[in-house]
Amino acid sequence: MIHTVNKSPFERNSLDSCLRLSVKGSPILLIEDGVLAATKGTSVSDKVAAAMNDHPMFVLGPDLQARGLGETDVADGITVVDYGGFVDLVCEHGTVQSWL
Amino acid sequence: MSEEIEFDTAGITKKFMYVNRKAPYGTIYALEVLEAVLISAAFEQHACIVFVDDGVYQIKKGQDTEAVNMKNFSKTYGIIEMEKEDADEDEDMDMEWRIIVEKESMEARGLSPDDFVVAVEVIPSDELAVIMAEQEIVISG
């Protein structure tokens, strides 16, 4: 199973719920406003860093770019993927749970 | 036209989970997920209907929507409970249904199992995470 989060961690609890209800080892892909959780030096950075001990973390590049953000803004350990990478992740991990 | 059409009803059975995370009436999510759940009953699929975060308010007792001019669909969750009971009792039916409330979400909102319109399993998040990981199809709202 792969988890996607599409809401900002500063506005909604989608990321918190995802972290609470995902088993260790399952990957998390941040998309749409969810990409804001991947940026450095925020109030949720520590939480995201801790989550990386249990989950491979990915962030969708086009959604970063659309918001004026790039790879240099992304915290260490989070992998930036393009749409093709998104498809690969879903094919590899099967069931998708979307935290809306 | 006397030919009878035969439908193959012995199809594939999959494990579905429905994750309800939004309170009713503010958005259309709760009603849409409920409709999807009822469809999966018609196709005799396995289903876990889960209430997490504000989704727990979907099954709160005593909803009265008259003054907001919206249909009170909380009674429809009773049909889910009936489907579950049918599935439990009918040995020939290969269909397992569970109605689950996440313990942490319920307690954070000052609710208890007595507050709900249906009988639920109250399960802590670490156990619910494992159940979720076992699903084949997850529909969230």
Report on this structure.
The complex is a heterodimer of chains A (100) and B (141). Chain A has 100 residues and is an alpha/beta fold. Chain A is built from 4 helices and 5 strands, in the order βαβαβαβαβ. Chain A has a single domain (2-88), classed as 3-Layer(aba) Sandwich (Hypothetical Protein Ychn, Chain: A), CATH 3.40.1260. Helices cover 31% and strands 19% of the residues of chain A. Chain A has a 5-stranded parallel β-sheet. In chain A, strand 1, helix 1 and strand 2 (28-30) form a beta-alpha-beta unit. The mean pLDDT of chain A is 97. Chain B has a single domain, classed as DsrEFH-like (Hypothetical Protein Ychn, Chain: A, 3-Layer(aba) Sandwich). Chain B is built from 4 helices and 5 strands. The mean pLDDT of chain B is 93. A 5-stranded parallel β-sheet of chain B has the order 4-3-2-1-5. The radius of gyration of chain B is 16 Å and the shape is globular. The chains are: A alpha/beta (100), B alpha/beta (141). At the A-B interface, strand 5 of A face helix 4 and strand 5 of B.
Outline the fold blueprint:
The complex is a heterodimer of chains A (100) and B (141).
Chain A: E1 2-5, H1 14-20, E2 28-30, H2 45-51, E3 57-60, H3 61-66, E4 78-81, H4 83-93, E5 96-99
Parallel strand pairs in A: 1-2, 1-5, 2-3, 3-4
Chain B: E1 15-20, H1 29-42, E2 46-51, H2 77-89, E3 97-102, H3 103-108, E4 121-123, H4 125-133, E5 137-140
Parallel strand pairs in B: 1-2, 1-5, 2-3, 3-4
